[in-house]
Each structure stands twice: as structure tokens, then as C-alpha cells.
Amino acid sequence: MRTAVAAAPMAFSPSVGCGTCAKDAPKFGVGRLDALRCSLPAAGLSIEMNAKLASPEPVSIDFRGVSYQINVIPARPIVSKLSLIVLRGETLVLLGRSGSGKTTLLRLINRMLLPSVGQVLVDGQPTSTWDPIRLRRGIGYVIQEAGLFPHFTVAENVGLVPGLEKWSAPRTAARVEEMLQLVGLDPQEFAKRRPRELSGGQRQRVGVARALAADPPILLMDEPFGALDPVTRSELQREFSSLARRLGKTIVFVTHDIREALLLASRIALLESGRLVAVATPHEFPRLDHPEVQVFTASLAAVPGAPA
Prior knowledge:
Rossmann fold, alpha/beta, 10 helices, four-stranded antiparallel beta sheet
């Protein structure tokens, strides 16, 4: 099944994606600058476009007959015969139960894994032919609990990928300040803190800021809000939805929560036991006649007061 629906403009960005030792990581200070060099007038954002993955083609990510299995268990593929395209600028939500293959698909996109069968193309190029470090620096990755380096300050965490990309110190400092403001953290208050001095929600915001810092065109998000309390999670979901619409990047977002999928997605791709069983917009998804879709939509009515 290779399906595409016209995408609403959506958004986000980078990751470390390579084995960099702490001693090699750059140290950055953050100071207020009178003005940023370049800005998006509507959103107040600088244009730091990382063109390494940029392409005029409408398809950003393309799974072509992909299967992935662990060698010792060939009879039980984790992903099986999956074909799916992700359009440039959309937010595709991968929905499914635990063990359905969602996170494996993210790892196939950034070449942490290679397909056993088939191909994954990023900007028209098979991941097997990409330089893995170059590919990963052009793809943002946000995970539960943010994955921050505990011995780095907030500013050093956010500025890590720009430093690896050899940005100048003033440019990095300006970008760090801008990204912290974007995710609702005052640079003067938070830039010098360590992750242990932040709340769970604040750490997740820093993780998003780090993912945005070098501004790659693709963002992978693996249940980024799953470990947060319900109130903080709801706040961040709303903020992310608004930010995604403004920035216009390609996002692949993993969740097992149908409410989150319906709120954030341009399209929802439902996985069951490693197979793609449905692809639809949030408006169409609850109406699909498939048993696994019905299981998820039935959970909407399981909580008193939830919409049917």
C-alpha cells in the first residue's frame, strides 16, 4: 500500500545521530544579541535551512517493500512488506500497539537499522548509500525524557549539532537563544542550567529545541510526550501542533495514543504486528472499516467525557 494525501504544512528538526564523545563536544555560552541576522516575518524565526537533505521532490521519505527481521528469528519479521511514502512538510503519525514496529521504522529512516528486504529512500536516495553521520545530522530525533547529556548545560545541549556542523560561536549562540525562546524557555533563566535542574516538561522542551537547532528538514519523534503528566503533556501537544503548522517541516511521530494522533497528524499510518493496515487523515481514520482501527477508536469512548 503506497498512499499519499495532500499534506498540510507541518514542521520540525535535528539530532546528534553519531558517536561523539563528551570531551569533543563544543562548549557554548549564550548572550542576548540585539537582533538575529535573518527571520521569518510571520513566525519570528531565523532561516538556518540545512540544505543537505533539501529536495524539490514532493516525497521526503519512501518505504519500498520494506521488511526487517532479526537474523536469529527470520520467521518473525518486526516489519513486513511495508510500502509507504511521507510527503514533504506533513506530519505523519505512526500509530500502533507496543511491538507493532513503530520505532523500528524511525530507526530505518535514519539508518540506525538497514532493511532486510526492500529500500528506504530519504530525499530519493536509499539510506544504504547515505553517509550515516551526514544523514543523521540532517534528521532531528526527539525521544521520551529528551535524551539530554546530563553533564552539559541547556545551552550546550541545544548547540551540540550546530557545533558539530562548524557553526561560528556567535551564530550558535544566537540560534540557541532563539530556539529556547521558541519552545517557551527564557535563555537568561535556563541556558546555564543542567538537565537535573529542570522539570520533565522543561527537559522535553530542551529536547525539541536541540532537535530544531541546526534546522534539518526532517524530524523523528518517538513518543516524546509519553512520560509526562497529563496536564504537561496536553500543553506540549497543543504547542507542538501550533509550531508544526508554522515551520513546515517533515515530521514522523510515533504514538500509541489515538487522541494524540488525531490532534497532531496530517495523516495517520496504523501498524499491526509489523504490517501497515491503514493510512488516512484524522478526519477519515475513525470511519475506516478495519478491526484494528475499530479497537483504537473504541478507546476514545472508554474515558468518560471523551468524544466518541
